[in-house]
Automatic annotation (TrEMBL):
This is Competence damage-inducible protein A. It holds the Pfam family MoCF_biosynth. Residues 4-172 form the MoaB/Mog domain. PANTHER family: NICOTINAMIDE-NUCLEOTIDE AMIDOHYDROLASE PNCC, NMN AMIDOHYDROLASE-LIKE PROTEIN YFAY. It comes from the Archaea. InterPro entries: CinA, MoaB/Mog-like_dom_sf, MoaB/Mog_dom.
Length: 242
């Protein structure tokens, strides 16, 4: 299974916040799935719609979108998903009830404001995703072969919702990865990396170090188990002959 991640928020593009949800990425990979890409984009409907189109063209099975689900002017993820689906937003009554009860616990003396009800909207044809510990409901939408999950940007809401609603449906690709440490210049082994990639239909990544003679360069081989083991053996034989 291939997973894409889009993180939305102008604040993520200032350099003052880490835009990469490391815990989420690690959890996806722990299930044996691939993270195909991570995009960090601005709060702009056109940009979000283009990112959704890119994701669909990239053939990801699951797309996780974070941020932009609040009630304010710059929270535009709901509108963008509805536009991409060619539909309208509507109130999810169960989510509205949960929102009212949540807000009542925080502000028992106040009635729910109209602007806050924006957090209970989902595109027609989509489902609301229960917010485990916050106000804004998430979204689950099936767009052809891609399942889109939209989560709030706050980690204390995003991560529990991810574990409850998304991680259980992520499955692996029946692949393994093998990591080797080599003390050889990256350019010297590139021909052998290409050789095993083409011969055994595996993906080969190089993680170089400037101080490779002391700490080594990393080479990662990923693919079907049998192919990876054959590729590793041939690669080791090649570099041992240098």
């Amino acid at each position: 299974m291939n997973v894409g991640i889009i993180n939305i928020g102008d604040e993520l593009l200032t350099g003052k916040k880490d835009p990469y949800p490391a815990e989420m990425i690690e959890a996806v990979r722990s299930k044996g799935a691939d993270v195909a890409f991570i995009q960090v984009i601005t709060d702009d409907i056109d940009v979000i719609v283009k990112a959704l189109a890119y994701s669909q063209n990239a053939d990801v099975d699951i797309l996780i979108v974070t941020g932009g689900l609040g009630p304010t002017l710059d929270d535009l993820t709901r509108e963008a998903v509805a536009e991409y689906m060619g539909t309208e937003l509507e109130i999810d009554e169960k989510s509205l009830d949960e929102l009212e009860r949540f807000m009542k616990r925080i502000h028992p003396e106040k009635e729910l404001e109209e602007i806050s009800k924006r957090m209970a909207r989902v595109p027609r044809g989509a489902e609301a995703v229960h917010n485990v510990c916050g106000a804004a409901c998430g979204i689950k939408a099936q767009i052809k072969n891609m399942t889109v999950f939209c989560l709030p940007g706050f980690p204390n809401e995003m991560i529990p919702m991810f574990y409850e609603s998304i991680l259980p449906v992520i499955s692996g690709n029946d692949e393994i990865s093998e990591e080797l440490t080599i003390f050889i210049n990256e350019s010297d082994v590139d021909p052998y990396m290409r050789q095993i990639s083409e011969k055994y239909n595996v993906r080969v990544a190089s993680l170089p170090s400037l101080d490779y003679k002391k700490i080594g360069n990393k080479v990662v081989i990923k693919g079907k188990k049998e192919n990876v083991m054959l590729a590793r053996k041939e690669f080791e034989n090649c570099i041992n002959s240098l």
